Amino acid sequence: MDFQDLYKHIDAIFQLQFLPIGKAKVSLWMLLYIGVLVTSLIVVTNRLRDWTEKALLAHTSVDVGLRQGIASIARYVVVFFGSLIILQTAGIDLSSFTVLAGALGLGISFGLQTITTNLVSGLIILFERPIKIGDRIEVDGITGDVIRISLRATTIVTNDNIAIIVPNSEFIKGKVTNWSYKSDRIRFTYAVPVALDADPVKAAEVILSAAVGHPGVLSDPPPDVLFLEFGQNAMNFSLRVYTEDFLTRPGSLRSELNFAIHKALTEQGVGLAYKPAAQAENT
User: Fold this and answer.
1) Do 140 and 107 share a structural domain?
2) In terms of residue numbers, what domain contains 150?
3) Is residue 193 assigned to a domain?
């Protein structure tokens, strides 16, 4: 068998129609044609999404999250209509998919409710912007920085450098704490118990001076100290400080302030409160 006969034999196999769809019948050539064009469409739309996000929208005032959302929506639209055109040019009558589309719609209404809810929630997040990339948020007990918002889910990275994928519906139906919604400036409040026999005025001054001397504490607005109450074992003070540098590390700021306050109080002869061992074990 020469090359020409082999070619005719392979062509006859690929031309063989084996799967009827409406008035058209699918052959291997048709499947190959559709597969190549759809793959090319996906590759081109991926490039189009990146170009739309980085080259076109980057010169506008639209933030990163919304740019990603617009680029993704544009890609889905192009893929949808491009796929329809490819099927039409392949000779497949799309009217034959009417029953299939009805069944798919029924399946979406029952089996894909969660996915649909997340997609709609993603659109709401992208356009209403209750959260955006770079925000420090807390949702469902998870605290971290938003690094990506897609149509289906949002990616949050915690202080342990762990990426957590949160479905977008959680941001719509649940309670979300956005620590940096308006700005990165946030106030933390720390309790400071002082011994009952201490001078409260002096204690407040020492606590305040320790906070003022910390480089991570903002001077505008300035920190302040409140004398809350006389407790059973201590005079309870509350230190309130504003910070930007420690937005993502409130525990570190508290630790450093505790060290500084303890050192300052000790140097000034102001005692910290303590609880008897038996009572401490029961609390």
Assistant:
1) no
2) 130-178
3) yes
User: DSSP of 183-216, one letter per residue?
Assistant: -S-EEEEEEEEE-TTS-HHHHHHHHHHHHHT-TT
What contacts 24+ positions apart, CB below 8 Å, involve 163-166?
166/139, 166/140, 166/142
Are 226 and 240 in contact by the 8 Å Cβ rule? The answer is: yes
Pick the more confident residue, 190 or 125: 190
Look up residue 189 and give its two tokens. 């409040």
Phi-psi region of 25 (alpha: psi -120 to 50; beta: other; left: phi over 0): beta
Among 170, 156, 211, smallest CA distance to 187 is for 211
Rounded to whole angstroms, how far apart are CA atoms 80 and 73?
A: 11
* Tally of CB atoms within 10 A around 160: 6
Q: In this structure, what CATH number is given to the domain that contains residue 139?
A: 2.30.30.60
On whether residue 121 sits in a domain, the answer given is no
Sign of CA dihedral 197, 201, 207, 210: negative
pTM exceeds 0.85 for this model: no
Same domain? 173 vs 191: no
Q: Is residue 282 part of a domain?
A: no
Give the Cα separation of 283 and 258 in Å (integer).
Answer: 21
d(CA 29, CA 14): 5
Rounded Cα distance between 16 and 28, Å, is 7
Per-residue pLDDT at 201 exceeds 90: yes
